[in-house]
Records
---
Amino acid sequence: MVLNYIWIAFFLIAFVIGLIRLIFFGDVEVFPQMVGSTFDMAKLGFEISLGLTGVMTLWLGLMKVGEKAGVIRVMARVVGPLFSKLFPDIPKDHPATGSILMNVAANMLGLDNAATPLGLKAMEQLQEINTKKDTASNPMIMFLVLNTSGLTLIPISVMVYRAQLGAADPSDIFLPILLATFFSTLTGIFTVALFQKLQLWNKVVMGYLGGFSIFVASIIWYFSIIPKEQIEVISSVSSNIILFSIMVSFIGLAFYRRVNVYETFIDGAKEGFGIAIKIIPYLIAILVAVGVFRTSGAMDFLVNGIGWVIGALGVNTDFVPALPTALMKPLSGAGARGMMIDTMNNFGADSFVGRLASTFQGSTDTTFYVLAVYFGSVGIKKTRYAVTCGLIADFAGIIAAIFIAYLFFH
C-alpha cells in the first residue's frame, strides 16, 4: 500500500514540476526528456534483470548448500544463549524460540525465501502465548525490531546489483554493510530493552554484545589509523577472503554431513533464473518512476534542499546524493532498490555516492513492510512502540553507514 502511494507520487510530482518548467521557464524539452527516460529506464531494468541471472544462480546455489548443511541450525545454537535473555517472556523450550533463532539466522545469511516462512511461523507461535490477541507482545516487538534492523552477514542482493552495474569489486561494501547493520541492530536491541525494562547487564548478554562491539570497534580503529590508500585494498582483500571462506565452509560442512553438494547446488541454482525473471516487472516499474522523478528535476530539488540544510550546518555534503536510498528503505524495499540502482547508474557503482547507497541498502530492512506482513499475519492491530523502535534502529544504521562510508571510501 505504501509503495502504491509512493509510485503514484513520483509521477504526479514529476508532472507538476514539468508543467512549472514548461509554463514559467519555457523549457520545451522537459516533457520529451521525461518520456524518453521511461524508455531508457525500462530498457535498463530489463537488462539488469537478465544480467542478474548468472550471479543470482551462483549464490542461490551456494545458499542452498549451506541450508542443507545445517548452517542455520549451527548459527541458531551459537546465538541461543543470547536470545534466551532477550526474550524472557517466552517459556523455556517453547517452539517459538527455535523459529525465531532460525529466522534470524536465515536473515543473517540473506536467505529471504527461508527467513519469511520461519518468521511467520514464529509470529503464530508467539501469538499462542500472547494474552492480548490484538496487541503486540514484548517478544513480538523484540523479534520484529531484530528483523527490521536488518542484521546481515552476507548482503547477496546488493553485491549482485553492484556486479551487474559494473563495480570493479562488487564485494567491497561487505565490511561497511556488516558494520552499519551491527550498529542498527545494537541500537534496536537497546531501544526495545529500554521500553521493556530488560536487564541487559548480565554476563551472557554483555559477553555477546560486548565481545562483538569490541571486535567492531577494533575494525573501525584499525581502518582509522592506516593510510587512506591502503583502506580500499585491505577492505577488498579481507572482504573477499571472508566471503570465499564462507563459501568453502558451506561446501565443507555439507560434504561432512554427507550432502550431495553438486546436486544440492543445482537445485538451489535453478531458483536463480526464476527469481531474476520474476523481478523484471517490479524493477522496471520502480526504475521508470524514479527516472521520471529525476528527469523532471524533482530529485534535484529534494537532494539540493537537503544538501542546503546540511551545508548550512557546516557539514560535508558529499553523502547527500545517496540519501534518497536511505529515506526510501523504511518504506519500500523495491523503492530503495530502485533508488540504489538509479544512484549507481548516474554516479557510478564505484563512486563514493554509489558505494554509500549500496551500504544504505544493506544496513537496514523495510520497517513498515515487515511490520505490516508479520503483524498482519496474526491479526495484531495495536503495535505499541514497535514502529518507534524500528525507525530508531533505521536511523542509527543510516548515521553509521555515512560515517563508515567516509572512513572506507572517501
---
Amino acid sequence: MLDIIIIGSGPAGLAASMYLGRLKMKTMVIGDSVGGTITTTTDIENYPGFKKISGEELSMLLKEHALEYGAEIREDIVKNVERKNKHFYLETEEGESFTSRAIIFATGTRRRKLPSKGADTFENRGVYYCALCDGPIFRDKVVAVVGGSDSAAKEALLLQEYASKVYLIYRGEKIHPEPPNLRRIEESDKIEVINRTNILEAKGDRKLRSVVLDREYKGSRELIINAVFVAIGGEPQSELARNLGVKTNSKGEITVDRQAKTNIEGVFAAGDVCDTKFKQAIVGVADGVIAAYSAYGYNKYIS
C-alpha cells in the first residue's frame, strides 16, 4: 500500500514526489517519459535560480532531487484507475498493479496536431512536432513553424541555427512570444513572420514539398518548404481522470481549487492538465508542491 501515486513524470509530478519524499510519504511516480514534453525545450530562461538551462537538464535535476528523498519513479503508462472503498487501484500497460490512499494527476498535455489536409500523411516525413528532435536534419533547408506563442517563437529561433530560411506562420494578427524572444525574432535575418494565415494542405510525394495557404503570400498560395514544425499548443491528457469521475472544464482540463483538490476526495491534480491559464514549468512545479502538501494532509486525515 502506497500513500500517494503520482501519474505523470513531468516537472509537476517530479516536484510533487520530491516534496512528498521530504514529508516521509511512501510515494511512486508513474510516467511514460521522465521529464515530459519539457525535455524537448532547448533553453529555459524564466525558471528562478537558472539564467539559462535546457529542459532536459532541468528534468534530470528534478528527478535526482526526488530520488534523493526516496521517491520511486517508474517508466510505464497507467491504463486504468479505479476507486474501491477509500483506496485507489491502478493498472499499467506493463501488467503491474498498485494501490494507494491518494492520487495526483500530473499528466500534462499532448501536442495538438496540425488540422490540415495531408498533415497526417506527411507526419515524420516533413511534418514534425519537435524542433530540437528533428531540426538538425534540415540544415540549409527552408522550413516553417506554425503558431504564434512563445513556444512557437522558441522553435523558430532554434531552427534558424540549421535552416537557411524559417517562416513563422500564424493565424492571428500578431505573434505573442515573451518580449526577449520577440526581439530575437525581429532581429533575425532568417525568420520571416506570415500573419493572418492558415495552412490548408500539406503536399508532396515521398516527402513534404510545399504547403497551401488560405491566402496569397507574395503572389502565391503555395509555399515551397522542406518541413513544417507544429507549435499550436496542447490538449490535456485527462482521460484517466475523467473516467474516474473527476470534473473537467469545456477544454478537458481538470478543475481544481487553490489547494489542488478535485471534486473527488483523495484525488488531486497539478500542472498543465489543470484549468490554470498560465502553462509554464515554474507554475507546474508550484502546482505539484501544493498538490503534494494537500495529499499529505489527506493521508494524515484518513490515517
---
Amino acid sequence: MLALRLGRGARPLALLRRLLVVAASAGVGFLLLCTLGWAMKHPVGSLPRLLWCLIPLAATVQLAVAVARTDPGTRPRTGLSAVGLGPARLTTLAATSTAVSCTLGSVVALLCFLRLRSDLTGTLFAGQAADLLARNQPLPLAAVLTLLALVPTFATAATGLVMRRHTRRTARPAESTDPAPAPTGLPWGVALTTAGLAIETYASRGGGGSTPPLPGRFDGSSAGVLAGWSLTAVGLALAGPGITYLCGRLLQTVRPGAIRLLAGRTLMAEAHGIGRPLGVLCAVLSGVFAANSLYGPRDEPPFGPLTGLGAALVIGCTAATLLTAALETRQARVPTTTTLHHLGAHAGLLRTAAAVRATAILAIFAPLTWMVAALAAVPLTT
C-alpha cells in the first residue's frame, strides 16, 4: 500500500519513467505471446524465436532497475531509519513498485493480444498475422501466465538485488573522500567481446555463409549468431566502466587546465554509474549497424512484423537506461556542484566541463561501436 501511495504522489518525471517501464513490459509481453502463438502452429524452430525475445527482455529489466535506482520515493535519506524506512524496507518498496509496473504492462500486453485475436471483439487478421495470434486455437493458460510472469519476476529480482546493495552503500554515516577506484572489469570485458566475435564467426561459417534470418521471418533464426552477439554485449557492458574511467584519465594528461581536470575527475567518479549503460548502448548500436550492412537495402525486407517492435524496444530501453543513469549521476553531483558554486565557479565553467565530457565519450565510444559492428559483419558477409 505504501508503494502505491508513493507512486500516486510522485513527480511527473518519475511517473513518466514508470510509464516507460510499463510500456516496455507490455511490448515484451506482446512479443512473447506472439512467439507462443507462432509455436502453436509451427512447433519446429520456435525455440530460436523465443531466444530472440530474451534481448528485449534483458533491456527491459535493465531499464526497470535504472528507474528504481532514481525513484525519489525509494531514495535513502537521513532519518528514514527512525520511522522504519531502513535499507531493507526501501529495497522492498523499490521491488514492489517495479513488480506493480511490470505486472501492469503484462496485463496490457494480454489485453492487446486477446483483442487482436478477436477474443475481445477485436479485428480479424489473416495470413502471417493469424499465425502469430493463433486465432483458431485455444491458448494454453499455463504457458500464457508463465510467459507474462517473466518480465515482472526478473525485473523484481534484479531490482531487489541491486537496490539492496545500493541502499546499504548510500546509507553509510561517513562517506570516504578518496577518489573512485578504477573498475576491474575491463580485461574480462575485452575477453568476452573477443570470444563473442569468434563465436559469431564460427556460427556464420557453419551456416555456409548465408545470412542469419532476423526474428520476424518465418524460417527460423541462427542460435549461434545470437549467442555470439549476446556474449559480445556482455563483454562491452563489462568493459564500459573501465573505458569510461580511462577516458577520464586521458582528459587529465598533458598539463590539464581547470576544465579538463574537472571533466576528467567527474568521468572517473561516474565511470561505475554510466559506463555499463554506455557499453550496452555500444553493443546495441553495433548490432544495428552490423545488421544494416549485412542485409542492406532490399525490395523485400528480411524481417517480419515483430522485428521492428523488438528493435524499437531494445534501442528505446537502452537509450532510456543511459539517460536515467545520467540523471542519477547528476543527482549525486548536487553536493559537489553546490560546493563549486560557493567557491566561485560560474555556471559557464560547469557547462563547458559537461560538453568536454560528452565530446570525450563520443570520441571514444563512436569508433568502438563502428569497429565492433565491422568485425561482426565481416564474417557474415564473406
